[in-house]
Amino acid sequence: MGITVQKLTYYPVKGCAGTGVESARVGVMGLEHDRTFMVVDAADGSFRSQRALPAMAAIRPEIVGGGAALRLAADGVESVLLDVDPDGERRPVSMFGRDIGEGADQGDAAAEWFSQVLGAKSRLVRVPSDFDRDGWGETPGKVGFADAHAVLVASQASLDGLNARITARGAAPVPMDRFRANIVLDGCAEPHAEDEMRRLEIGTVHLAYAVRAMRCSVPLVDQLTGLRAGPEPIRTLATYRREPEYENKVSFGMKAAVVERGSLAVGDPVLPTWASGAAA
């Protein structure tokens, strides 16, 4: 049967809930609408993350009108529908202590909504039309407001292998949404086969390997409730997926650059080019 696309997800607002789709257009910075928006500290422009604010996971953004508007919803507060301003007032923004350029501010209504929900003074910014940010790794590519790479790829085989280890320890398995992947693959013969894929042809899209996906505390967060529910899966990943070259962080999935734009869909065959010596 071969390897196919099992699931596609984009995340309109970085750190908030994702939107599953049956098909997607893919640009140089990833799936259309993925991490187009980012919540930042109103004072210094640093990005808000589930690392410090796990409640972000339970915020449900919805792209409306092909990107002309954004609806925001969360339990316990009134939803809001915002007109998107791709050319809003520019605001310097940063991630992990590094400046990454400017975002287009989306106005006071968005800022007030996020500030109320998160209990911290915040602004919402959008990737501006002239945004130009380089990724890094084997194939750097371009990236918007994702951490550092355009597309995150993971496989069902990797999750099944991890959950077999977790349940052997007497703990409950975790769902794939903990890893916030854009593309989930089905049909891989072995766990973590995605680590060995150097090129992927899917639909009319070509992706190229950048780096293994290093994991922080976000996979500890229940993506439905916005509550931290650790120690799994990080505890078990630490027993077999530590990466010495990356300060002994654990990895799950791989990050890729877009080298040919196009479209893809759930069920599409995946044609990988493997790293030298890797088994198909």
How is the secondary structure organized here?
Elements: E1 4-10, E2 19-21, E3 23-27, E4 30-31, E5 37-41, E6 60-64, E7 69-73, E8 80-83, E9 90-95, E10 98-105, H1 108-118, E11 122-126, E12 151-155, H2 156-168, E13 183-186, E14 197-202, E15 205-215, E16 221-222, E17 227-228, H3 234-237, E18 242-243, E19 249-260, E20 262-265, E21 270-274
Parallel strand pairs: 12-13
Antiparallel strand pairs: 1-2, 1-13, 3-4, 3-20, 5-11, 6-7, 7-8, 9-10, 10-11, 12-19, 14-15, 14-21, 15-19, 16-17, 18-19
Essential attributes:
single chain, four-stranded antiparallel β-sheet, nine-stranded mixed β-sheet, mainly beta
Written account of the structure:
The protein has 3 helices and 21 strands. With 280 residues, the chain is mainly beta. The radius of gyration is 18 Å and the shape is globular. The model has no long low-confidence stretch (mean pLDDT 97).
**N-to-C series of helices and strands:** EEEEEEEEEEHEEHEEEEEHEEEE
Distance between the termini: 13 Å
Give the number of helices.
3
Largest sheet: 9 strands, mixed
| Strand percent estimate | 35-45%
Structural class: mainly beta
Q: What ranges have pLDDT less than 50 throughout 5 or more consecutive residues?
A: none
Mean pLDDT: 97
Shape: globular
Q: Taking Cα atoms only, what radius of gyration do you get, to the nearest Å? A: 18 Å
